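Project outcomes to date are best conveyed with an example. Our students and postdoctoral researchers have been running inverse folding experiments weekly, and each run begins with a structure described purely in tokens. The record below, which covers 270 residues, was selected by the lab manager from last quarter's runs and is presented without edits.
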């Protein structure tokens, strides 16, 4: 059996213990031909092994966009996946439990998605119009949550159709409790980030107003095509998530700032 580390190594572990985050020394430079434009970005090597190869060429025809696994935090947009990766955040360097020779689970696991999304309902957006993009996203989230068959519609239907043990309708105070605990909220604010000529909106998917589920960055590349970098959060530790949140925000913004779009000259253009 492996012997525990000496006490003096445990006592000094906080000086060199990794906090996790983007493996800066292990990134892949990606370039994807997307028909009328070329996208480039840096993608960290996955902490849990590589999946299927990411594409280096995609078309933008309707048949190229498929359903997404990001059903909730990107409202069932049709997508083309460009890349996927993951990494972890660990205990703070000065956490007291560092001195004990026991396994420490990660604070959080982050899965990053880079994907193209088809704008819904035939809406046309201007690539540099952040206000129009924000209006589109706001209306889209509300429509997703509140329209018939949506998450909040189902919560209300279940609450008002609920029965007590005796078969009577639920009293109003129980209905109010159900709605207060289970109704989801759309993103509360959108922040503008401009880099490499792209106008991004950053927003949290925090439907239960607690620990956020995902941090999204979205920009309009074409009138009917969005690009979203989505960072999905799985909390693994009961410790306060604020301990790694600022590092998480910095890492996500660092990755988004590496994304660049080169638009190709159209045939016959001057």
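After processing, the design step wrote out the following sequence:
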């Amino acid at each position: 059996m492996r012997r525990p580390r000496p006490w003096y190594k445990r006592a000094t572990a906080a000086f060199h213990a990794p906090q996790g985050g983007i493996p800066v020394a292990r990134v892949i430079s990606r370039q994807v031909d997307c028909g009328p434009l070329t996208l480039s970005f840096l993608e960290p090597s996955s902490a849990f092994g590589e999946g299927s190869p990411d594409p280096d060429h995609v078309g933008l025809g309707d048949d190229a966009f498929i359903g997404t696994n990001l059903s909730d935090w990107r409202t069932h947009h049709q997508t083309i996946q460009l890349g996927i990766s993951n990494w972890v955040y660990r205990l703070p360097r000065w956490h007291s439990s560092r001195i004990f020779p026991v396994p420490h689970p990660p604070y959080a696991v982050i899965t990053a998605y880079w994907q193209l999304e088809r704008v819904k309902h035939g809406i046309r957006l201007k690539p540099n119009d952040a206000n129009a993009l924000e209006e589109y996203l706001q209306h889209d989230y509300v429509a997703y949550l509140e329209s018939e068959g949506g998450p909040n519609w189902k919560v209300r239907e279940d609450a008002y159709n609920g029965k007590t043990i005796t078969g009577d309708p639920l009293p109003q105070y129980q209905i109010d409790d159900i709605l207060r605990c289970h109704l989801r909220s759309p993103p509360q604010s959108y922040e503008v980030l401009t880099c490499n000529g792209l106008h991004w909106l950053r927003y949290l998917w925090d439907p239960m107003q607690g620990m956020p589920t995902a941090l999204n960055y979205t920009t309009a590349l074409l009138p009917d095509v969005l690009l979203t970098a989505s960072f999905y959060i799985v909390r693994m530790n009961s410790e306060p998530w604020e301990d790694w949140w600022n590092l998480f925000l910095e890492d996500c913004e660092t990755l988004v700032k590496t994304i660049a779009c080169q638009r190709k000259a159209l045939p016959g253009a001057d």
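The first helix runs from residue 7 to 11. The mean pLDDT is 85. The training component of this project remains on track.
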